[in-house]
Structures are given as structure tokens and as C-alpha cells.
Amino acid sequence: MDFAGRLHQLIEESDITQKELSIQLHMAKTTLNGYVNNYREPDFATLARLAKYFNVTTDYLLGISDLKEACPMPLSEEEGRLIGLYRRLQPEKRELLIEQAKTLYRFEQKHL
After folding, report:
1. Within 10 Å of residue 61's Cβ, how many Cβ atoms?
2. 15: domain range?
3. Tens of pLDDT along 25-52?
4. Count of Cβ atoms closer than 10 Å to residue 106 Cβ
5. Measured between alpha carbons, how far is 23 from 73 in angstroms, rounded to an integer?
6. In a domain, 18, yes or no
7. What is the CATH number of the domain that holds 48?
């Protein structure tokens, strides 16, 4: 997958709009839209900002690697417990948990 496809996928997975992302990264909406629609390419600094924002490597964004994180951070005890609970849930309950987490995250972002 190319840069535009990876960026589009990351935006969708993050449940954020292009407008919201452009505001958070202090970038023109048209510029971000150009990246997503593959008629613009970011400079090195912008590529690094996008990678940092989505917590992925620049190699992942550029389609060089399929590994999102070069050196994943070790999980905290709480994160490990959450993953353990998630893995024990039935698939439909996992999706419900993900939706609840997204709702909680959006609520938190609105009240910062």
C-alpha cells in the first residue's frame, strides 16, 4: 500500500476526520487532502509529524515496511490486563469494547 492509502487507513482507524487532523497538526485541510488523495507528498518534517501523531514509523507510512512500530513500547500492567480481558471476549463483544473506547476517547478530547 502506498503513502496515501496508509494515511487514509490510519485516519479511519483513529476515528478522526481530516479536518480534525489538519487542525491538530496545524496544516491546511487542502494540503492534508492532497496527501490522502495522492496528488501531494509531504516534506520530511511533515512526514515525521504524521508518523509521530499516529505512532507509526516513517517506513510504515511510506509503504517500505508493514510493521507500524519499530520498537514497540512494553505494556504497562494495566494495558496487559486490558488486552487479556479483550482476548477472552467473544468477537462481537470485542467490537463493542472498541466502540466504547472510541466514544470515551472522543468525549475526553472534547473536554480537554
Report:
1. 22
2. 3-62
3. 999 999 999 999 999 999 999 999 999 9
4. 12
5. 27
6. yes
7. 1.10.260.40
